[in-house]
TrEMBL record:
The chain crosses the membrane at residues 21-39, 59-80. Pfam families: 2TM. InterPro entries: 2TM_dom. This is 2TM domain-containing protein. Residues 10-102 form the 2TM domain. It comes from the Bacteria.
Length: 105
C-alpha cells in the first residue's frame, strides 16, 4: 500500500514541477516579448538613422515580430504537454485502436 502512495506522491510532484516549468516559461515569454515590443520602435529608429537600406530595416522588424510567433508556438506545445491535452483526432484514433485490439482478443 505504501508503494502506491509513494508512486502517487512522486507523480504529483512531477506534475507540480512540470506546471512550475510551464509557468516560468510563460513568465519569461511575457517579459521578453513585452520588452521587445517596447524597444522595437527605438531599435527601428536607430537603424533608420544609421542605415539607408529599407530592406534591412524591414528584415530587422520582421525578426523582432517573428520571435513571439515562433516562441509562442513552442509555448503552446509546452502547455499541451504539461496539461496533457490531446487533439480530438488523436483521441479518436486511440479509441479506434483500443476497440480493434479488443475485437482481436
Amino acid at each position: 500500500m505504501e508503494n502506491l502512495v509513494d508512486i502517487k506522491l512522486k507523480n504529483a510532484r512531477n506534475r507540480v514541477e512540470a506546471l512550475k516549468g510551464f509557468y516560468n516559461h510563460l513568465m519569461f515569454y511575457s517579459i521578453v516579448n513585452i520588452f521587445l515590443f517596447i524597444v522595437r520602435g527605438n531599435i527601428l529608429q536607430f537603424f533608420q538613422n544609421q542605415v539607408t537600406d529599407k530592406n534591412f530595416i524591414d528584415w530587422v522588424d520582421w525578426n523582432i515580430l517573428i520571435v513571439p510567433i515562433f516562441w509562442g508556438i513552442g509555448l503552446l506545445f509546452h502547455a499541451a504537454k504539461v496539461f496533457q491535452y490531446k487533439l480530438k483526432f488523436i483521441k479518436n484514433w486511440e479509441e479506434k485502436q483500443l476497440k480493434n485490439f479488443l475485437k482481436e482478443d
